[in-house]
Structures are given as C-alpha cells and as structure tokens.
Amino acid sequence: MSTLVDAGNGGEVDTVAEAGRLQALDAYAVCGTAPEQAFDDIASLAADLCGAPIALVSLVGREQVWFKARHGLEVASAGRESVLCPLALRGTDLVELPDLTLVEEYARSPLVVGEPHARFYAGAPLLTADGHVIGSLCVLDSVPRRLTDAQRRGLRTLASHVVVQLELRRRVCQEAVANDRLRRADQLKSDFLARITHEFRTPLTCITGYLELLVAGGLGPDEVAESLHVVQRNSARLTGLVDDVLAASQLGGAAPAPERTVEDLFDLAAEAVAKHAGTAARRGVALELAAPLGPSEPSMAYVRGDRVGLACALSRVVSNAVLYTPAGGSATVSVTVEADRCAVSVTDTGVGVPADEVAEVLKPFCRGRYADERQVPGAGLGLPLAAATVQAHDGKLTFDSVHGAGTTVTIALPRA
Question: Is 214 helix (H, G, I), strand (E, B) or coil?
C-alpha cells in the first residue's frame, strides 16, 4: 500500500544506514552521467501511465539529487534540500502527496512556489537487492490529485525496472573494464615477449660472435683476454636477466618471508656503487658514494633484512641511474639515518621521466620512450622488483623525477 505523508512525518537520518545507502549508489557509478535511452523511456512511460506532465528517475546523493532521466523538466540535478525526491527515502513503498501546499515542510519548496508549481507528488523507491533505497521514480503534477490503484502498481513496476537497468548497466561497465584489462594484459604480454626476446638475443649474439673468433684462433693474448671478458660480461647480463624474470613471476604472489639479519645499509650501498663503477666509467658517468656522517665515523645505518634481497634492490636502482644518465652526468648515492629509519637515496642528473610516464614507472615490463629510443638495455623490471623487495622489508621506495633534470629514488627502511 502507498504512504500518504503529512506535515511533521520526517525523522532523523540513520547515519549508518545512510552510509550504506550512499555506498550502494556509488557502486553503480551513474550519478552525473549522460542521459541514456533506457532510463528516458521509463520516465516517459511513467508520465503517460500516471497522466503527469513531469516524471523523473532521481538518484539521491550526498548533497545532490541527480536526474538520470527527466520528462517535462530541464534541470539535470538539484540540491538535495530543494527537491521532493528524498521523500522516497523514508520507506520501501510508494509515497504519495495529494496536495503539496498542505504539507508544511514542502509548501515552500522551490518546485512548489516556482516552476513547475508542483502540487501533486508520487514516488516509488528504487530499491536495490540488498535493501537500500537509492532514489525514486517520481511523477509531479500542477494540480492536486491522487493516483489510481493501477497507476500505483504500474509506478512500482517501472521503478523496479529502473533498478534492473542500473544492474545491467553496471554489469556492462564491469565487463567493459574486464575486457579492457584483458586487452592491456595481452598487449603487455606481447610487448614483454618482444622485449625479452631482444634482451636475450643481444648478449647471446655477442657471446656467439666472440666464441667463434676464439674457436677460429689467430687472436693474440690480449685479444683473447678481451674476448673472454666480453663473453663473461654478457653471460652475467644473461644471468641477471633470467633472475629478473624469475623474480617478476613472483610479483603479487605469496613469496616466502625473507630471512632477516642486521645489515649496514651504507655497506650495501658501497657494494652497489662498486658493482656498477665499471659501467659508469665506460658510459662517462661520475658515480660516487657520499659519506653518511664523516670520513672517520661509523655509518650507524643498521637495518634488519635479507642481505641478498636488499643488495639486489640497491643494485637495480643504481644501475638505472647509470643507464639513464648521459655521458658527462653524475649519479650520487647517499645514506641518511633518522630516529626510526635509515634511507639510501640515488640521485642522478639524467634524462628524468616525462610527467605522463611517472605513473608507469613501478609497473612491471613498462619502459619509457627514452629507453626504447636509445635502446637502453633492460626489460622494465628494475624498479618494480626493487619496490617489491623494499615493501617485503616493511619499507618504502619513493620516486621523484623532473623531465630533463634528473631523478631521485629513495629506499627507506625501519632502523634496526
């Protein structure tokens, strides 16, 4: 049965229920969206069924009421306190007001004293499957009146169809998002296979070429030593690439907790600098480690963690700094100690990251335009793997970059 509302029939808002109702509404992601034919058709049917000049599919938000469909009214939304649709939130059945001018709390409503000079209101609630009323399908007229029983039944039925359309709309949107994710995942896989094939082929080609020279003979001692050095360097590159791919396969999975011992972060940073010193020298990049406190003072930068994992994370960050800094630039590694944390920062004067690529930096297999244009080696795994390792140690990796000016990557860990 319908409810005839009289003056003073309000009531306090249940804040918990209201929060749940708003959450249910937000889940449809429909407020403020463009008109859609399915909802417009329902509003038109409601107007014809009830013989009313105005029909609205109203969604009651936090402060606004959004008219997803409107028949006979131009505005697309209005302040929650200035319209009548919140009446439908008072229960789960149709609300009917035969003459708004006789209801004190609505007699001075803008819809009553101004256009469209509403006198009659009837609204059927939009009731979700979990019992939340998110709005109403309502009709308004400029003369006092009542609906017939058949009109009330029809208005309730149409209101239920509004909810069905909202559910269908949500499922279509969810499927579109899922399909988009699948397309992006498929593209990412294709890009990764192409990139990883190239990354493997380059050192393998180099190794094969030098091995053929060694097998053919005729090289002097110095040439043999240089050839073996090149083979060794490319073999190490392959090993590192395999390790990265294996580590990447565990991203997001239930990796075992690292075995933690007390480690000196300054020592680990020094090892990373020493490891990449040769590459930096060949590329013309000045790589240095700044003293933490003073030349004769201990670092005191003790953290608790897996030495191998932390060493790999620092190595990846330092490697990136060297690879993305042109000749003549510099990369500085510094360690700081605070009351509850230790941090190592790697600051370079390299190419930096364009603003539109910053969000992609920590995503696996993503490489920027500079890397592709300059053929910087790597599979786009360095920073994502480093960030995952740091997170597993209850730490945080932050990234700050200015395109054309350089980048600073900071690894902060709880102090032991």
Answer: helix
The answer to whether the beta carbons of residues 311 and 269 sit under 8 Å apart is: no
Say if residue 372's pLDDT is above 70. no
Instruction: Look at the chain and report how many structural domains it folds into.
Output: 3
Q: Which two tokens stand for residue 231?
A: 């083979």
DSSP labels, 252-275 = TS-PPPPP-EEEEHHHHHHHHHHH
Supply the DSSP symbol for 58: E
What mean pLDDT do residues 357-374 have?
66
User: 């049965």: which residue's tokens?
Assistant: 1
pLDDT at 44 over 70: yes
The span from the CA of 30 to the CA of 337, in Å, is: 49
Domain end (from 197, 219, 248): 248
- Residue 131 is given by DSSP the state S
Q: What is the DSSP string of 215-244?
A: HH----HHHHHHHHHHHHHHHHHHHHHHHH
pLDDT of residue 1: 47
CA–CA dist 130, 132 (Å, integer)? 6
Q: Which residues pair with 406 in a beta bridge?
A: 402
Contact residues for 68 (Cβ-Cβ < 8 A; gap 6+) = 30, 31, 33, 35, 36, 39, 57, 58, 59, 135
* pLDDT band of 74, cuts 50, 70, 90: confident
Report the amino acid identity of residue 329: G
pLDDT of residue 380: 66
- Round to whole Å and give the CA distance between 125 and 95: 8
For residues 33 and 156, state if they share a domain: yes
102 and 136 Cβ atoms separated by less than 8 Å: no
With residues binned 3-state (H G I as helix, E B as strand, rest as coil), the percentages for the chain, rounded to 5, are: 50, 20, 30
232 pLDDT above the threshold of 90:
no
Closest to 276 (Cα-Cα) out of 311, 249, 300, 250: 311
| Cα–Cα nearest to 344, from 294, 393, 408, 389 | 408
Q: Element (H or E) spanning 411, and its range?
A: strand 406-414
**pTM score of the predicted model:** 0.52
pLDDT tens across 151-185, in order?
999 999 999 999 999 999 999 999 988 888 888 77
Amino acid symbol at 33: T
Beta bridge partners of 345: 334, 410
Residue 298 included in any domain: yes
We report the CATH number of the domain holding residue 198 as 1.10.287.130
- pLDDT for residue 268: 92
